[in-house]
Amino acid sequence: MKFNIEHHTRFAFNKPIGYTIQQLRLTPQDGFGQRVSNWQVKVSGISSTQLDTFGNTTHTLVMDTPHQEIMISATGEVETDIDWSTDLLAKDKTKHDDLALPIYLRNTALTEANEQLIQFAQEVTSKHQAINQDLLTALMNSISQTVILDKTTAENQQSAIATLAAGKALSQGMTHLFISCCRALKIPARFVHGYCFNPTTKQLENHSWADAWLVGSGWQSFDVANNAPSNGIHIRLATGLDYRDACPISSVMHDISNEKMSVDFKVHEMSQMQQ
């Protein structure tokens, strides 16, 4: 599939503010079945581009004069279902990572486990003799049966422990729970944030899923909220240990109590590739 994407974000402030720093993770990269072309990020202020610790392309936006509005636009084309194994010059990102795998065993405040969560993970593994795709699929299924996807909540930083206790969450919370279970089982796992295309509504949505590392197979992707492996409807923007590492926009400095944010997605499905 090939998509033409427009992602516009507007921050409006009730009163002028003098200083803003934001970090933007709005640039998809080639790999993991996707190819990117003509991608641009445009902002109201001055921005610089760099790679972060996890290899994400980030833009740091700085506005140091009084302002009541920030406009951010990310546009371009992404083709999915690309088989990168046929490109001898391309690095297979599925089986490669620039960071040592033990880093992805580190827990954060959003992925730490308690006794109840560890027991939940162990109940799944007790039915499997090896750490493999079947085990991770069973874990994904178990979470989907235990936690309801609730799009009415605004809590995108719901922790793994809170998600299991509440029994409902956004995709971010369900992903934190999956990652926490993986790390409790000594399986390296990371958070992925990006877009998910809904073929029924033809709409693009912010969405989160997880990568888990399997020996011999590399990174395998699991969309826990949809209880399915990631596929041609997923477009990845950034990865990290949790949502805070991979979220599309994070404000390093300004008074968020004074802000109102609006987001607009436009997507055109350009073609359906032959499978």
Automatic annotation (TrEMBL):
- One Pfam annotation reads Transglut_core
User: Where do the Transglutaminase-like domain residues begin and end?
Assistant: 163-226
Entries under InterPro entries matching the protein: Bac_transglu_N (IPR013589), Papain-like_cys_pep_sf (IPR038765), Transglutaminase-like (IPR002931)
| Protein's recorded name | Transglutaminase domain protein
Q: What top-level branch of life does the organism fall under?
A: Bacteria
